[in-house]
Amino acid sequence: MELDKKKRNIVLVILSMIAGIAYLTPLIRFSFYDQMIVALNINDVQLGTIAGVYGLFNVIGYVPSGILAEKFNTKKLLILSCGAMCLVTLWYSSFPGYTALIIIHALYGIFSVGTFWSPYLKAIRNLGSENEQGRLFGISEGLRGIGQTAVAFLCLWAMGLFATQAAGFRAVLLINAAAFALLTVLVIVLVPDFDKGKKEQNAKAEKKESMWKAFGMSSTWLCIFVIMCGYTLWNTANGYMGTYCTRVLNISPELSSTLSIIRSYIIVFVAGISGGIIMDKFSYKGKGMFWTFLATGVCVLAILFTSKIVAVCVVITVILAYLVNVLKSTYWSILGEAGVPLAMTGIATGIISFIALTPDIFVAPIISRFLAYGEAGGNVELGFNMMLVWMVVWAVLGVFSAILLKRRGVKTKQLEQAAQAENV
Length: 424
Description:
By secondary structure, this protein is an all-alpha fold. It folds into two domains: 6-190, Growth Hormone, Chain: A; 211-415, MFS general substrate transporter like domains (Growth Hormone, Chain: A), CATH 1.20.1250. 83% of the residues lie in helices and 0% in strands. The chain contains 18 helices and no strands. The protein has helices at 5-24, 29-40, 44-71, 74-92, 98-114, 117-125, 133-159, 165-190, 199-208, 211-216, 218-247, 253-281, 285-305, 310-330, 335-338, 345-356, 359-376, 380-423. α7 packs antiparallel against α12 and α7 (133-159) packs across α14. It is globular. The two termini are 23 Å apart.
């Protein structure tokens, strides 16, 4: 869809804000864990169960999300997602019973992933040409970080206005509900109908383009390979570099927290914006991914061999955070180069997400066992070194996946040029 630059930027901001807050609200416990326990009158085990329900519905929602993105209107799905998240959050703010909280978090999984994730990716992809995909997805990731940070600090401010934690937490939820309400209106008024004029085309495509065809496409599996490598590296670095600095480098918890904030907020924004622009400078996304995976592997090795030089090692961990966030913010831009047809974006992204984002399930159990092994032997650094070797392995796999992606990109471009020549 052709949009002027100003309109496209506005739509990009709206979509990114939705993605950011749709992630922030169900995971509000990350920022207000103790307040949730008090306000909802639950214990740690119950909160863990609630979180598990949300995670389960997240994972099982990816494939249906892809199907919905192809079967139904993208704009209507975005409106449904925002409106439903608003209503569910309002229900949440009434502090219902434990069973209701489980239902609420199941609904969060449905409406933040099932009806939203693939339509969001499809909408972003429709905002520009293949040469702009890295920039679009990178900027979107950066804007998501800004949106999350702004709402999180607003919630923190609101929490401090009330005498009790329960009242403060209710205010936090109402702020999130208001944000979803505002975004619902903005989608209705400002986001274009990406599917307008495509009904006839899609009707014909539905007979041919099925979930099974997308599942069997080599381009789908190539995307899974690249994205899983990038997401595993991001998941590991994001989850464990903070505690590595505290337990191996022996820096203070305060400094470690400061570095974590830099990695979680500032670097996400910088990596999203700059990474997307840089990735689009390469003639092929695979080439950009190759150098990013390679640099990530070098950084991890540098951390492994400089742990005794604390200042240098800390700086390298920050560089590593930048690189893995570049990977995360741009890996969805490879769809076109990998050969995924634009008409199959919804179904393909659902399948890709379902498999490629499984590091959410296996990374923490594996790394925690590495660390437990080191601690059992009286050498916690050994466990972290095993983690770093794990990351090097995934970086090498990432380099290999990027080589395959570049080769596919060359082939895809040749096919496009041949098709254009036939049409002339």
